[in-house]
Amino acid sequence: MMAGTHILAIDQGTTSTRSLIFDSQAKRVAAAQREFEQLYPEPGWVEHDPEVIWRDTLATAREAIATSGLRAADIAAIGITNQRETTLVWDRRTGETIHHAIVWQDRRTAERCQQLKAAGAEPMVRERTGLLLDPYFSGTKLAWILDHVPGARARAERGELAFGTIDSFLLWRLTGGQVHATDVTNAARTLLFDIRRGCWDAELCRLLDVPMALLPEVHDNAHLYGVTAPDLFDAAIPIAGMAGDQQAALFGQACFTRGSAKSTYGTGCFMLLNTGEEALRSANRLLTTPAYRLGGRTTYALEGSIFAAGAAVKWLRDGLGVITHASQSHDMATQVPDSHGVYMVPAFVGLGAPHWDPDARASIHGLTFGAGAAHLARAALEAVGYQTLDLIEAMVADGGARPAAMRVDGGMAANDWLGQFLADLLEMPVERPGDLETTARGAAFLAGLAVGLWSDLPELAALWSRARCFMPAMAQDKRDVLVAGWHDALRRTLSASHFAGE
Predict the structure, then answer these.
(1) Dihedral over alpha carbons 472, 376, 478, 424 (to 10 degrees)
(2) The whole model's pTM is what?
(3) Confidence class of residue 499 from pLDDT cuts 50, 70 and 90?
(4) Of 53, 273, 335, 444, which is most buried by a Cβ count within 10 Å?
(5) One-character DSSP codes across 138-193
């Protein structure tokens, strides 16, 4: 199948679209990026213009190929990774979308989710999908579009419309409207997909009032989905890999064995723990999700999300003005021997897993006259470690294997001080890879597997390289005091509604 020696990875994110080219040794040889506008039509609503996303995808792909000095014929395949849950509906005949993309962050369907919970639907939803009933996921967004765009529901029932997440939309456009498909990791984020049977669920579709005629075919993550339309590049390129961004990062970090784990630190943090072929049922409100499916066999993961990681440092810069650049947080954290008893609980938009307290709000505890800006900066970084520890403990309590090491990526992973604090707190090695672009790398790995550029997972694992390993070095009694202080600050921050729901 393979005609070229390089892979083009399209990484379509929440704030930017990027295209990267990797060679047969998984080394980056070119990259292009464009940021795009976030649309906020009403409070709590977040939208994207899909035509801008498509324009930027095509432009960055062409730019990356040109910058690399390659031709389209040198590209063995395209891999796509994407912001998950963001929802689009388009006309099957024209390819035109009928509404802006509703972004994963959008909260407009919160009331509908509460209605479904009150009706007792969540246990079935959790059992089949591994998810919570939350507006974060695609299904209620899709129903909202059908109910609010005139004529959309009738057109959907006649089979005239198509639904997709960003991966599916880009695949449709790249193939000139020839392929309507998605992969198992994106399908699993819709509230409509049975993750154990590996198919769309008719009862879930009826629950959310979604006509099944809208839904794309679901394939493995490494799969020959189609080829690019003849007018896009100077040669047709196979599209052979797709995965949601966090699963792609897990794959790019070569976390292929049960008990291997990665944490991606950006605005928030997403941690995935490979649980092998067992879809663990979480008792701690973590998500159960497919990590990837290859050759029809699904590997599962537990997933936990932290809403504010880098966002807390950004608040120190933009909200308080105590730093001028995010990178200063590292230097300030090392200026003081400890946080002087200061704890930040960064619940700016509530707390994510495993607490799931949307009514909690950020707090700073332990302030005295001796506390200064450096202590606040250190407390913000320490909060990332404490929240990561909460996730690890919840995953192990759910039956997940305790990781032998934590592989980290994302912008904050470049912070050496944070890497060491994570190792001390988690009591395990923290491994930083040579290339932090693990999401795009994962999409490239999947596409390369499908077309034979790489033969198997052991070959991919051999391509992963470690740039730095942080080893635990903190005394146990000091760690115990720090963790106890965090638990106290957390307890004081949780909302009354959280305790009422226990």
Answers:
(1) -10
(2) 0.89
(3) low
(4) 444
(5) HHHHHHHHHHHSTTHHHHHHTT-EEEEEHHHHHHHHHTTT---EEEHHHHTTSS-E
